[in-house]
Specification:
This protein has a 6-stranded antiparallel beta barrel with strand order 1-2-3-6-5-4. The protein is mainly beta. The protein has a single domain, classed as Bacteriophage SPP1 head-tail adaptor protein (Thrombin, subunit H). Mean pLDDT is 84; it is low at 122-128. Helices cover 8% and strands 59% of the residues. It holds the Pfam family Phage_HCP. InterPro entries: Phage_SPP1_head-tail_adaptor (IPR008767), SSP1_head-tail_sf (IPR038666).
């Protein structure tokens, strides 16, 4: 492939969704109890691929389970963050919080990073 040839599968127009990555921090309160909080790590442009959506009956309530795959342009700082945090961070898109199931550098080629997330919705509300 030529160095500057247009690639229709990986051009900047596909990365049009803004996501916020938040890292987990543990703090200790006055009673020496650990409290899990999340602080902003960074905002990134991402391409979204919906993997699966399903409805689940849980304790008499209908819930919707959504799995998405975010593909981000590679950044060394993001790769180092994922190596250190593994899956202990969360992704927020349009105010919806998603739990991270997996995150990895695609084929270790330093071109894109894929983050697979899961969100839940109860009775038609936004995913939680």
């Amino acid at each position: 492939m030529k160095q500057f040839k247009y690639n229709e599968n990986n051009h900047s127009g596909l990365y049009r969704h803004r996501i916020l990555i938040r890292k987990r921090t543990l703090t200790t309160d006055e009673l020496l109890q650990e409290i899990e909080t999340f602080e902003d790590y960074g905002s990134y442009w991402a391409m979204i691929k919906t993997l699966k959506g399903s409805e689940i009956m849980d304790a008499g309530r209908e819930q919707t389970k959504v799995e998405k795959r975010y593909v981000l342009k590679y950044a060394k700082s993001l790769d180092e963050f994922i190596d250190s945090e593994h899956t202990s961070f969360e992704v927020i898109q349009n105010g919806v919080v998603y739990d991270v199931k997996s995150a990895l550098n695609d084929d270790d080629m330093n071109i894109t990073v894929t983050i697979v997330v899961e969100g839940r919705s109860s009775n038609g509300n936004k995913y939680k």
